[in-house]
Amino acid sequence: MGVSRALGSADPADPFDIESAAVVITDADRLIVSWSPGAERLIGYRARDVVGRPAESVVAGGDLSAAVSGLRRTERGWTGVLAARHRAGHAVDLSVRTCPLLGADGHHGWLIVACDVRERREFEFFEAVARGLLQRSPMGIAVLDTDLRWKWSNRALADMDEDRPAEQEPPGSGSDHGGPTPVVNRHARRALVTGQPQVTLDHAPPRHGIPPRSRERDFRLRSFFPVRDPAGQTLGICLVALHATGQDSARDRLTLLNEASEHIGTTLDLDRTLQELAEVAVPRIADFVAIDLLDEVRAEADPPGGRQPGEAMLHRAAHLSIQEDHPEVVVDVGAAPHYPARSPQKRCLATGKPIRELVSATTPWLIDDTQRWTKLIRLGVHTHLVVPLRARGITMGVVTLLRWKHPEPFDEDDLLLVEELVARAAVCVDNARRFARQHQAALTLQTSLLPPDLPRHNAVEVAYRYLPADTEAGVGGDWFDVIPLSGARVALVVGDVVGHGLHAAASMGRLRAAVQTLADLDLPPDELLTHVDDLVVRLSDEAEAAAQGPLVIGATCVYAVYDPVARTIVVARAGHPSPAIAHLREPVEFPDIPAGPPLGLGGLPFESAEIAVEEGSVIALYTDGLIEASDRDVDVGMERLCFTLAHPDRPLEELCDTMVRTLLPERPRDDVAFLIARTHALSPDRVVSWDVPADPSAVHGARNNAVRQLALWGLDEIAFTTELIVSELVTNAIKHAYGPISLRLIHESALICEVSDASHTSPHLRGARITDEGGRGLFLVAQIAQRWGTRHTSDGKTIWTEQQLPDGA
Predict the structure, then answer these.
(1) Most buried of 456, 506, 663, 705, CB within 10 angstroms?
(2) Would you say the pTM of this structure is higher than 0.90?
């Protein structure tokens, strides 16, 4: 039997598999009572030929005792080789496993499982090869589950400790371990998603103390492929890793560049990108690297494409040395290096070309710089390489590399390698610089579009927080607002535009302006969201028609109106989390508000819900970034929110600080905006209302009632103007509308006068001609009142006015 047979294209199956093996059961008298199809295949007898006959009838030689004497006793039975007599007359060697079966009568029969000896030996050979490959092979082998967590690994992989985090348990235990390194995770995930094998070749850190400057380089070859069960279901990913050593400098440089493309630019943080460049260069290329940036790189404007040497204003952005104490450093990070006029750095900035030169005690430019001369000559620096950090036609700084422990000076190959490496890094640095500028512009735009300070309102006391995400995605479109409404009511709004950056910030500003405009119309929450939804659809269609892409990809919003007179809050939401209400004497509540669709879908209805709210309760409106920050587990976030709102009697600013501290990580992955409001009820003695008969004679009584109430409130100074307003509004309601008609006065921060009727027709200002007998009343009201408007309800409409209170009232 050859290896090719054992390890052929099809893996050998376990011959003792119950589906294919010969299975025979005998009773206590050794009579055959069961005979499987596998037994028929191996020995040739059919069940009807042998069932009921003694087991000796199918044993070669007919002597069962002699046949089983060669079996080996195990803990629960016997195992070994037994010769059976085939129906055709020849002997068949079978690999046998047998164990006793205990019957109800206390007697026992036997269960015999057999397979062909040759098939068994082939399978044992295959298992031995697989076991040797997994456990004793010099190749590192590991298995990751579908969540890319370590399930098993051999000892060889443990020696390649760069593949496994140091804090993990010893491999081979079969227990769950932590996740793999980022490089392993990336390729394993690709193999898992595509179902195709992935092969990588990269540089491995020298092992067993091999000096990093040796021309011999260690390489790591990795292979990732899916592991599947017989049904084709993916069980995980197998990783096979192999170390190799070679002296191919070209491959060494390509490997380094390949690693640099993965290591540099992992974030859009400028400082981190520069540090990653330094980490790639030291100690693989140089013993020390310093990166100096022009001051303009961190400014909002692009640095000029060309400049005179004397104009270069550099500052140290990053440096790294093979020695922890950095003996070669002349300036700290953030300080200006002040290179001499003839230095390679100045010449590199002036020409935009790299400069490579040997360093000695007589180097002209170094003699002009006593401090650098002392440090570099004392260390024994023998080569100096300066390369411009340049991308998209813009020089952003210089990269300086030194060697003293590397025995070889920088050569032409090193120069080409460093130029390519710095060029790739420069693109990442420029991307990070551009992102920082865009992020700042978006943040400035969003900050200018958000309310600088929320208006004070007698109905609620408010506090808020806006925390932009500290991620590469940029500033998002979260926003909030507090909008005074008629009738002493107030609207609380929180919204979230999908996406990040300038686009999201501009879309947020347009939506906030639209909500403010529609709120001035005193629309019910559900109707207001319907109009906003129409606006988002229209804006998206216009942007797509202009080939600009959708202006607003999607948005969510929650709009709530609190009425301090009725002590209720009416809420509608468009794909947004439901607000939380912290009652004084009951647990925190997430009211069941109908979940409307996100804004921008169009054609779907929105619904409102009315909730009774006692005075002193706290209402919290928030974006999903607040409750999803807890490891993206919304349930945990809502539990933590309940915890922070459990004592609504605390100061609102303290509640905000607690919410930030309890629910948010140090660096949120998404924008977070939330608004909390403590409700205040209007005292009943500050509100009075009367029903007005639909009779012109009732106008006189309405005026008298209003004047008497103003006297009780001490507002006699505005009694005359109020009498005019009541007279005109009640007269219009009686003349142009229909009942029931009511008059209500509210003494709040202003005197509010409301006349309600059952008509849905709104009055409009118009210019009356000299010959007209009417048409001047509403114009007169508009001149007397500070503000006026119309509020539509399901039962009709309300005409309201606001008058400024006298000083001291």
Answers:
(1) 663
(2) no
